[in-house]
């Protein structure tokens, strides 16, 4: 976040507070937006407010239109003064990079709008500070890329902070046929992931088709079994084994299974937990010389506690013919003013 509030700067150009706040989110996270996304943000149905906002952005030459056929459009925030007002004058979001990039950015904006109440690490400096200062990760382990200069976290995907303080990474599909991008992402982030005690990676798309392959790709580097405590002795996970111990204790105390779930777990456990180690752990459990935390520690593999989640966003996106408006001269860029300086004109 800049050390001043950029919303009044956008309001001075003629936007309402809600419109300015939405433009800020677009500039930070996507560069592109749909009419329905603006309506979702202001919690209104399609109508005059959306029309007024879009017409205003076009009149100020802050927004360009991408026609997608079937009377559908994508709106591209291209104005350098807008990006400069939030200290992102070099943002790559201003530049058109084709359908794949555009699609992933629309997915990002939808997910951000759905999770505005969460803590989001919005930019490179916030991410660096979180991982180096709060998580104690060495700076050389952070993912790097090149965009005219060496940059950290080059994908620009938002990273969320869960309630327990662990990071929740995101990867957004771009409509590619293969998972090459995801493989490169995993390679780039592997040093950081390995240095963390726990993390979640959320794979997002508008379709579930690639999810099985994405899970395999992730498991090849970070198995979710580390988190659930799957081992040779606990093939269904440590929580299942703990459930079996509790069900056994209830069964011996009452002489019968108390619930259908207990009965199911006991039947499964009779086939799975048959070794001397299992018997010894149950005996120790009954007399109180071991407990759930000790058993979890015993069967949880060392290393990062990795969780992989797939989400198919419940939204539709345009089919793109990619016919853009011609750039026009920035007429109103001078209406935006940054503290202590004028903002450059032009798109």
Question: Can you walk me through this structure?
Answer:
The chain folds into 3 domains: 1-98 and 322-347, Arc Repressor Mutant, subunit A, CATH 1.10.10; 110-225 and 301-316, no CATH class; 238-298, no CATH class. It has 14 helices and 13 strands. It has 347 residues and is α+β, with helices and mostly antiparallel strands. The longest helix is centred in the last third of the chain and has 17 residues, at 238-254. The strands form 4 sheets. It has a 5-stranded mixed sheet with strand order 4-7-8-9-10. Strands 1-3-2-11 form a 4-stranded antiparallel sheet.
First and last CA, distance: 22 Å
Q: Largest sheet at a glance?
A: 5 strands, mixed
Number of domains: 3
Q: Unreliable runs, pLDDT <50, ≥5 residues?
A: 326-335, 337-347
Shape: elongated
Secondary-structure-derived class: alpha+beta
Blueprint (SSEs and pairs):
Blueprint: H1 7-12, H2 17-29, E1 32-33, H3 35-42, H4 48-59, E2 63-67, E3 73-77, H5 80-85, H6 99-114, E4 119-121, H7 124-134, E5 144-146, E6 150-152, E7 159-161, E8 167-172, H8 180-195, E9 198-205, H9 211-219, H10 225-228, H11 238-254, H12 260-272, H13 276-287, H14 292-299, E10 305-312, E11 323-324, E12 337-338, E13 341-342
Parallel strand pairs: 8-9, 9-10
Antiparallel strand pairs: 1-3, 2-3, 2-11, 4-7, 5-6, 7-8, 12-13
